[in-house]
Design a protein that fits this description.
The protein has 221 residues and is an all-beta fold. The chain contains one helix and 15 strands; from the N terminus they run ββαβββββββββββββ. The longest helix is centred in the first third of the chain and has 5 residues. The protein is elongated, with a radius of gyration of 18 Å.
């Protein structure tokens, strides 16, 4: 089953937004009954590790996607080094859509479980008048039949940074004491439309790599 545009998406067009605040919601059944606000707001003691176990797609050639856990245990970030879609001006048709599916494993301390409460995507766009850009992401847990999908469209003319937030994209808690792969499939698509010049949309900036940020919602088991 696919849930389209789950939660809320806030598109902030222009300068990059501030660091994400942790967005919390009522815990799912896996977290059990009687979980209070203090439990939800807490961050676990002990080590937390996050790793990409697989990354495939035209937007993330081998070795171009890495993951880093936040030092404060509030989430993690994926960094892409070559994730650009472009169209128009004689660009090859295969460059109009780029995607990357990353499989991420989070190892949580004993007695804790988590969900993804918020995700932030950002990069640069050069969209000529008449062109459009699309950023779409699908999320699903290993072994789950449910896929959550969010998307945002940008219209030209647009030149500069773009920034989107997904609120509660995967607010489904991992069963306690289980370790599952979170699959994150991110897509960039550019349509030249009526424009004859080259338009592009990327997960990178001219200053270097741009992180995609994911924030945890922690609960005690």
């Amino acid at each position: 089953m696919t849930e389209r545009l789950i939660g809320a998406r806030r598109a902030a067009l222009g300068a990059l937004g501030a660091i994400l605040a942790l967005s919390l919601s009522t815990p799912a059944q896996a977290a059990g009954e009687g979980t209070d606000a203090a439990q939800l707001a807490a961050v676990p003691d002990g080590n937390i590790t996050v790793e990409v176990v697989a990354a495939n797609g035209s937007g993330c050639a081998p070795g171009t996607a890495t993951v880093v856990a936040n030092a404060d245990k509030t989430g993690f970030r994926i960094r892409y080094r070559d994730f650009v879609a472009q169209a128009g001006g004689g660009v090859d048709a295969t460059d109009r859509r780029k995607n990357c599916q990353a499989g991420v494993v989070v190892t949580a301390p004993a007695g804790w479980t988590f969900a993804i409460a918020e995700a932030n995507y950002r990069g640069r766009a050069r969209l000529s008048s008449g062109a459009t850009g699309l950023q779409r992401t699908s999320y699903y847990w290993q072994g789950s039949a449910t896929t959550s999908r969010t998307e945002e469209t940008f219209g030209g003319p647009y030149y500069g940074y773009w920034n989107t937030d997904d609120v509660a994209p995967v607010l489904i808690y991992v069963p306690c004491e289980e370790q599952r792969v979170l699959n994150i499939n991110t897509e960039l698509r550019v349509d030249a439309g009526t424009s004859t010049s080259t338009s592009s949309m990327s997960m990178t900036s001219s200053d270097g790599d741009v992180d995609t940020l994911f924030n945890f919602s922690w609960v005690r088991c």
